[in-house]
Design brief:
The complex is a heterodimer of chains A (229) and B (244). Chain A is mostly helical. Chain A has one domain. Chain A has eleven helices and two strands; from the N terminus they run αααααααααββαα. Chain A is globular and about 65 Å long. The N and C termini of chain A lie far apart (48 Å). Chain B has one domain. In chain B, 39% of the residues lie in helices and 20% in strands. Chain B is built from six helices and seven strands, in the order H-H-E-H-E-E-E-E-H-E-E-H-H. The chains are: A mainly alpha (229), B alpha+beta (244). At the A-B interface, helix 5 of A face helix 1 of B.
Chain lengths: 229, 244
């Protein structure tokens, strides 16, 4: 009796899996969730140090976000491909090596093609290795899921990180130096009327406060995030 | 295969190291030329910025060839070593390790709108790692036309501030020789009573709070490097004075 049943089950499971489209609801959730409901920065509060350090201007924040997207997507895919071959006892070391080599690749490419930005980001590119989001997603997701899902998860989480970075950088550059992406947006006339750039916005504590305000706004809008006590 | 066996674990680790090493080595060597080109152009850009010529990296080479009329590799006694190319052959990081008599001291002479400037490369140590830069002297070989600094790993927000324009601007118009003609350099001073830096004869600029050691490194670097150019700078100055 039990024999045919257990034969049937995997068959159904297999068919169902094959039918799942590339952008099924589940897969879209992998991309969308980290942008809001499960944002690595504002909800999980990971990767804060780099969020404070490189959000003075938009340009480095955008390059940093793109670098993290590249590193996370690539390392998630690689670890997911290797997930059945990685010896369990050294899996953290393997993850570190994968992330570190991706980071070095990104660093080398930036040095060759975007030298100024790579100087500006300096050590922070190297510090992507220590970004908790990257290792966290490898350990929690890529080790147990397929390649495509892992790719989406990596892109989604990196995008959630980058999204917050860019919002914070937008406000810090706007109020701190009156510019956006290096171009002056607050007209000279406003300065002549007595407006001053807020120098405090350029310092790290204001990044934390900006982030705090963003978390406040996000929680006010998204009731799901409020803990029930 | 048993994924938990020691043999498999060692094998996997060894294979991984081989693959990663070859991928990284391949990337690094194929991008090396592009990176070296960026560094070369940045050097030109830095040299030009000390004499007030601002340019982007791509335009640096053309302007460098226009404005820099002489590139000299000096010996300790002030004579020129013709066999050495000051720009590409002299790497200060290696030169500094040699004895002063074996070192070659690069000097760039610029000519901008009929004004002559002498640009001297600097290198020393900050708090964590190397700091370097360029200092340009006016035709009197005493007054600073401009300075530019860079660093490898000073603390962001503190020592790293030496690369900021407002800090480098403080050196403009300061004098490296005192009135009796001795080399005193520029002291990055914590006891400076002149925070706006209006007194240009005090051989001092205001230090950055929290960057004492980096600041001291800048002061030391300037004197240490400039002292090797004395025979060149002074000999000619006296000659000039004599001719006048």
């Amino acid at each position: 009796m039990s024999q045919p049943k257990s034969n049937k089950k995997p068959a159904i499971f297999f068919v169902a899996k094959e039918r799942e489209s590339l952008f099924s609801k589940k897969n879209r959730k992998l991309l969308k969730d980290p942008l809001d409901d499960n944002n690595p920065i504002t909800v999980q509060v990971l990767g804060i140090c780099s969020a404070l350090a490189i959000t003075v201007q938009l340009k480095p924040a955008i390059v940093m976000s793109l670098s993290v997207v590249a590193v996370m997507a690539a390392s998630n895919v690689i670890v997911s491909i290797l997930r059945n071959a990685i010896p369990n006892r050294i899996r953290i070391i393997v993850q570190l090596v994968v992330v570190a080599s991706m980071v070095i690749l990104v660093d080398q490419v930036l040095r060759a093609f975007a030298y100024d930005v790579s100087k500006q980001l300096s050590i922070f590119i190297g510090l992507i290795i220590t970004n908790c989001i990257v290792m966290g997603r490898l350990e929690a997701f890529a080790l147990g899921n397929g390649v495509w899902k892992s790719f989406l998860d990596g892109v989604g989480n990196a995008a959630g990180y980058g999204f917050m970075l860019i919002i914070v950088a937008f406000f810090r550059e706007l109020f701190g130096s009156g510019k956006l992406y290096g171009y002056q947006v607050i007209p000279d006339a406003v300065y002549e009327m007595g407006y001053e750039n807020n120098g405090l916005m350029l310092l790290s504590p204001m990044a934390l406060i900006t982030l705090g305000i963003i978390i406040w706004v996000q929680r006010a809008r998204n009731r799901k995030l409020i803990e029930k006590h | 295969m048993n994924r938990d066996s020691n043999g498999y674990t060692f094998g996997f680790a060894a294979a991984m190291v081989l693959v990663v090493a070859s991928v990284l080595a391949f990337t690094a060597s194929s991008l090396k030329d592009l990176q070296a080109e960026n560094v070369r152009k940045e050097k030109m850009q830095n040299i030009l910025s000390t004499i007030g010529v601002e340019t982007d990296r791509d335009g640096a080479e053309k302007l460098f060839n226009t404005y820099i009329v002489e590139q000299l590799a000096l010996r300790n006694d002030g004579t020129v070593d013709e066999a050495v190319d000051a720009f590409s052959d002299v790497n200060l990081a290696f030169e500094l390790k040699k004895d002063a008599k074996d070192q070659r001291f690069p000097l760039y002479v610029a000519n901008v709108d009929a004004a002559k400037y002498y640009i001297i490369p600097l290198r020393g140590s900050g708090l964590w790692d190397a700091i370097w830069g360029y200092i340009a002297l006016n035709e009197d070989r005493n007054t600073i036309k401009g300075a530019v600094f860079d660093h490898k790993g000073e603390t962001a927000g503190l020592g790293a501030e030496i690369t900021q324009q407002w800090f480098m601007d403080r050196f403009v118009d300061e004098k490296i020789f005192n009135t009796s003609g001795d080399l005193v350099g520029i002291n990055v001073s914590k006891t400076n009573n002149d925070p706006n830096d209006t007194d240009k004869d005090d051989h001092e600029v205001d230090a950055i709070s929290g960057a004492t050691i980096t600041g001291d490194g800048v002061s030391e670097m300037i004197v240490e490097r400039l002292q090797h150019y004395l025979s060149y700078l002074k000999a000619d100055t006296e000659q000039l004075a004599f001719n006048n």
